[in-house]
Write a structure and sequence with these properties.
Elements (H helix, E strand, L loop, with lengths): L4 E5 L3 H14 L2 E6 L2 H11 L3 E5 L8 H12 L3 E5 L4 H8 L5 E4 L4 H34 L3 E6 L4 E4 L1 H7 L3 H4 L4 H4 L2 E2 L10 H8 L7 E5 L15 E11 L5 E10 L1 H55 L6 H29 L6 E4 L1 H11 L1 H6 L3 E5 L7 E4 H21 L6 E9 L2 E8 L27 H11 L3 E6 L5 E8 L6
The structure holds adenosine-5'-triphosphate and magnesium ion.
């Protein structure tokens, strides 16, 4: 049994006392007794009882029905009427206050016990139901999806705030309207009118499509005429509401605005395309810088040799034989420039242009020949310890020559920048375990520990006329051949660049 705090409103004091005793015996607490309607309203407010036992005929102006109405409106406290007579008019008036029960006087204790228990129980379940309804209402109000509930005739019972915003209808205006008037949807592609989804679901049950995409026309936006381009693109889902007997008693339509999501997806696609474009531009930029870098050396040689040529030819008796040798050098350098451009294009495509067996030691000797003039000008002593004969590297001859040339040029520039008496370039090759190793050592100023990673980045340079491409190209060439290029400090302060490459292609 639920013990409750009860207010007794009864103008017959003897009856009131009697009821009080009975209630106490049942374990309830009587929180107040009143003989008039006015006082009953006051007591209900101050005591907040769980239940009011209300006589209909009372002292004073206000009768029990009026007092019950006021208490119900203000406090939602359950009321049980006590009455000695019950004509139709009184019962009708009383029923408007939604009482929780009637007790016809005179009544026995068991009767009162049952009516009070029922009233308390009903009140508790009403409270729970109201709370649960509030929870649902709060949930529906706070979600961004539109929700419309329809009855079994396909008329709108309820719609949440998001549905109001998206359809342009207020819930009050929409209530009782056919769904097809409130939620006007057309096919997104053809703009042909679509049947309202709740009708489809009520008819086809589980066979109805689980969702569909459509265009929701704005309120008052005219009939679907096949040309609609405005309105929201929505994704709709609809389910039937089934009662205890398994019959559909209505439907719930949930829909979501896809416009925003599509806009974001579109922006993402554009951003990705932009990024890919930027990537291509960066690659193009690096390619251009690489070409400029690698072609510069043969071009300078061509200019120097062409100058020599002109000098020869301006003699009264030009030595044609000598001139021919210089012109041959020009032709050789021009061809080399062409080869270099081709090899860089292959490098950008990440394929060796023209793979074959390359004797690295011989290649180093040839490359040193190319820069003999620079070495002499910078008064650099060259020491080499080049392993003769196989194993050879399988790779692209022009690219490998570019690699050695870049390391040698850097070494020459480093030595020239350092103010040291020792001006030494040493190149050593070796092999073992299926790898070929090449060390290029110089007596320059060396590389600070912190810069070891940066120097391999494209466009990183510390030289006024540098492009910052040499090492980045060199590393690409080495990696393309399955090898590694590293920089370390040299023993005597300079730096050591070392690359190793697998002897056979693929590094096996
Ligand atoms: N042997 C070396 N000794 C000391 N520092 C070096 C050496 N080689 C490269 N560096 C440093 O690494 C940087 C990058 O070298 P990289 O060859 O990539 O470009 P760069 O020589 O500056 O210009 P370029 O693109 O014309 O070759 C150089 O600017 C220099 O600071
Ligand atoms: Mg360089």
């Amino acid at each position: 049994m639920i013990a409750a705090r009860i207010l007794i409103v009864e103008d017959d004091r003897i009856v009131a006392r009697d009821i009080q005793h009975q209630l106490s015996r049942m374990g309830h607490v009587v929180v107040g007794m009143s003989a008039s309607g006015e006082e009953a309203v006051r007591l209900a407010c101050s005591q907040q009882p769980d239940l009011v036992l209300m006589d209909i005929r009372l002292e004073g102006e206000m009768d029990g029905i009026e007092a019950a109405r006021r208490i119900r409106d203000a406090q939602r406290i359950p009321i049980v009427f006590l009455t000695a007579y019950a004509n139709d008019e009184v019962v009708h008036r009383a029923s408007l206050t939604e009482p929780f029960g009637y007790l016809l006087k005179p009544f026995e204790e068991p009767q009162m016990r049952t009516v009070i228990q029922m009233a308390l129980y009903k009140h508790a379940s009403d409270t729970r139901l109201r709370l649960s309804e509030r929870r649902y209402a709060a949930t529906l109000a706070s979600i961004r999806d539109g929700v419309i509930l329809c009855n079994r005739d396909g008329r709108v019972d309820f719609m949440n705030r998001a549905a109001e915003t998206m359809t342009g209808w207020t819930a009050a205006d929409a209530a009782g309207q056919p769904l097809s008037a409130v939620f006007v949807v057309v096919d997104e592609e053809t703009s042909k009118p679509l049947e309202d989804f709740s009708a489809v679901v009520l008819r086809s049950g589980d066979f109805a499509p689980p969702e569909r995409q459509s265009r929701l026309l704005p309120r008052g936006g005219g009939e679907a005429d096949g040309n609609a381009t405005d309105g929201l693109v929505v994704e709709e889902r609809c389910s039937a509401i089934i009662d205890d007997r398994g019959d559909p008693v209505g439907s719930i339509l949930v829909f979501r605005d896809l416009t925003q999501r599509r806009r974001i997806a579109e922006a993402l696609r554009t951003a990705q395309a932009d990024l890919a474009h930027i990537g291509r531009l960066t690659m193009m930029g690096e390619l251009a810088a690489a070409v400029a870098h690698e072609v510069n050396q043969p071009l300078m040689a061509i200019v120097t040799n062409a100058g020599t040529c002109l000098q020869h030819l301006s003699q009264p008796q030009p030595d044609l034989e000598k001139t021919r040798v210089v012109v041959e050098r020009i032709v050789r350098d021009a061809q080399r420039a062409g080869d270099v451009v081709r090899s860089i294009r292959a490098l950008a495509r990440r394929t060796p242009a023209d793979p074959g067996w390359v004797d690295i030691s011989a290649l180093i000797a040839e490359t040193l020949e190319l820069v003999r003039a620079e070495l002499r000008r910078a008064r650099i002593t060259v020491e080499t310890d080049l392993q003769a004969g196989p194993p050879w590297v399988h790779g692209d001859r022009v690219q490998l020559q570019q690699l050695v040339l870049n390391l040698v040029m850097n070494a020459i520039e480093a030595i020239s920048a350092a103010d040291r008496s020792e001006r030494l370039l040493r190149i050593v090759t070796g092999s073992g375990d299926g790898w070929i190793r090449v060390r290029v050592e110089d007596s320059g100023p060396g590389i600070a520990e912190a810069d070891v990673d940066s120097i391999f980045r494209a466009l990183y340079t510390t030289k006024p006329d540098g492009l910052g491409m040499g090492l980045s190209i060199s590393r690409s060439i080495v990696e393309l051949h399955g090898g590694r290029l590293t920089a370390t400090p040299g023993i005597s302060g300079g730096s050591v660049f070392e690359f190793m490459m697998p002897v056979s292609p693929g590094g096996q």
